[in-house]
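Dock nicotinamide-adenine-dinucleotide; give full complex structure.
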Amino acid sequence: MDRSTIMSTIQQQRDFFESGKTRGVQFRLSQLAALKGAVERNEDALCEALKRDLNKPRFEAYLGEIAVLIKEIDYAMRKLRRWMKPKRVFTPLIHFPAAGYVYSEPLGVVLIIGPWNYPVQLILAPLVGALAAGNCAVLKPSELAPHTSALIAGIIREAFDPAVVAGVEGGVEAATALLDQQFAHIFFTGGTAVGRVVAQAAAKNLIPTTLELGGKSPCIVDRDVDLQCAAKRIVWGKFFNAGQTCVAPDYLLAHADIKTKLLDLLKSGIKEFYGEDPKQSPDYARIVNARHFERLVELLGEGDVIAGGQTDPADNYIAPTVIDNISPDYKIMQSEIFGPILPVIEYHDLTQAVSFVNRLPRPLALYFFSTNKQKQDSVLAQTSFGGGTMNDTLIHCATAQLPFGGVGDSGLGRYHGKASFDTFSHKKSVIKRWLVLDVDLRYPPYGNKLPLLKRLVGWFG
Ligand code: NAD
């Protein structure tokens, strides 16, 4: 889509939005139903596209993309009427008689930019919130998952009037052209560096943004846990989608007393899941492209590889890899890994692990394996992160009732379930009064009313 087509599409959406048609509950429900129907009808095609782009196993495509999305749509459809109702709030007695309300109103035409790692879910789940809240939307899927991007664009054409939802395919150029336009909100999912570019472009037009970014998410394993179960859950969360998951455990902090046993169990967990040669496993994805493959291979040079380490550039294959004896100044600890390599660092007491986490920018996720409630509370109280799971990995982000998003470098704003509806709504605060009981106190001339005012503010303010 060239710049002039982009501009006319946005204008068409603005006109449609101004017509007021997106505001009614029936219209919103019909759009959500259209999205659900299109995703369900295209499930096979979506899984096939994901296979071609990432060699994503069908099971992971269904679980990590389709099922999460359908659940998100169902939840929004079920709750929409309640979310849309104006919320009555407590009103201070000093305003008596009066009632305060918060109205949720749609923002207008919004822009959603997606990444390549979960290219279906991460472009369409924000759309659920945008539609539920009564907006029109322009979507730009990632060019690095080209088969999925083309299919998503086709699905959007099939399911929606372009005056309500339109897809724009392309890379940096298309994104830059879109970022020049005036949108009511920009919802961006991607890396922290591009997030800064998006925030700067949005600031020029004073556009509010949601930035769903990445970071180095720690996984801490204490000595008091069932190590076999912990190891399985870590292997699953780390190597799902070949580690290309924004909330994947990035690095492992293992208590010195259990590290050797845990490493053995991680090794056997990898073998149990993916066999002797994970390259032959139908359940193991590939690195998205040669650039990311080369970036990851460069991280393999330091520390002691205790599992995996094999690579094949012809296939963008990197085996599930665990590296021990990692020093914090190694390259692998300098930025988000976003691939199937798990560096391991040992700690001797929990304060050491906590201060290690706190020396790095605030991560998108944190995982802590411990059966000790006091230790869990202490880690939760002393660390800041987007969201996390105790004694498991990944699953907090597949819970529509929990707002999902980062903090600091890992993002700004949140979505999923009601949080998505709120993100794409303006909260309009209104006091309703009646033209009776008009107390003169606040009106000039103020004379000597101040002492009385102070007393009333103290009692009723
Ligand atoms: P990316 O930032 O490279 O690209 C994301 C999107 O931005 C793509 O659509 C791309 O075309 C566009 N883009 C790229 N350069 C741009 C520029 N200069 N100006 C404007 N737009 C530009 O991210 P990615 O490589 O697709 O995804 C990986 C990153 O995303 C990782 O850091 C990961 O942690 C993060 N991520 C975060 C979440 C989350 O929910 N928080 C989810 C998935 C991925």
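Observed: The first helix runs from residue 3 to 18.
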